[in-house]
Amino acid sequence: MNPNTDQNNSDKIGIALSGGGIRGVSHLGVLQALTDNGIRFSHISGTSAGAIAAAFFAAGYAPKEILNIIREAKLFKLLRPAIGSTGLLSILNAQHLIKQYIPHNSFKELKTNITISSVDLGEGRLVYFTEGDLDLAILASCCLPGIFRPIIINQHMYVDGGILNNFPVEPLVGNCDFIIGSSCNHLPVVTEITSFGKMIDRAAMIAINSSLNTHKILCDVVIEPHGLGDYGIFDTDAAEEIYMIGYEEGLKAIEGNERLKAIVKAHKKLRKRKA
């Protein structure tokens, strides 16, 4: 039995998790807020940081546990490009960490169905992984082109799924009755940019958000914390703050969406009957 799926709820609930570097930790806060209120998922899709959150959550780790793993194992630092590198780096240095915490390394052994998006660099197309080696799919989805060497899977070169779709809602359409989107790349209005790094980060966010609305309309509710634009994608010291921002935004989403409130209310009634 899948503990992340509510067998007593006829609605199949899916959640899509965007990419966004360390800002993706907000997904963990969102997941914690939703699961604390009895919401269970039949399907999760994610890209880049969202793929990490999806895989670890589907493996059975609680969101707070995943946050601790990320902090203690310095996962995002392993995914951070080395300053002064003269060539493409290998992202495979994070492979052992994924296998350490998810030793079965299999989509089939996960407790919830997940889809991980990546881009086939050779064919120039978006690819959705639902089977095969889990670690390679995660790393392919996180593989920033131009910084990391592409991940090779079955003689194909794969890079970050966010290039073509940073908010992979489509795998949930037709498979879920209710779709939640968690996006961590809200673009705030600014009047100045104080560093080259921030300029690059903002340019990337603008490109990422250019097609965001076409994906948002596929969701029944979108959770998009507005405070995350102030954090860089490698601002690892802010992980706890980002987590709490996601958690609070998840609670606000429940209060602000009648369908979510109804799902939570139904869960509470069921729990009382079982007590």
Automatic annotation (TrEMBL):
Residue positions of motif DGA/G: 160-162
Keywords, comma-separated and alphabetical: Hydrolase, Lipid degradation, Lipid metabolism
Keyword Hydrolase: yes
GO molecular function: hydrolase activity
Motif GXSXG per UniProt: ranges: 46-50
Active site annotation, chain numbering: S48, D160
Segments forming domain PNPLA: 15-173
Superkingdom of origin organism: Bacteria
A Pfam family: Patatin
GO process annotations (BP): lipid catabolic process
Motif (GXGXXG): 19-24
Keyword Iron-sulfur recorded: no
PANTHER family: NEUROPATHY TARGET ESTERASE/SWISS CHEESE D.MELANOGASTER, SLR0060 PROTEIN
Protein name: NTE family protein
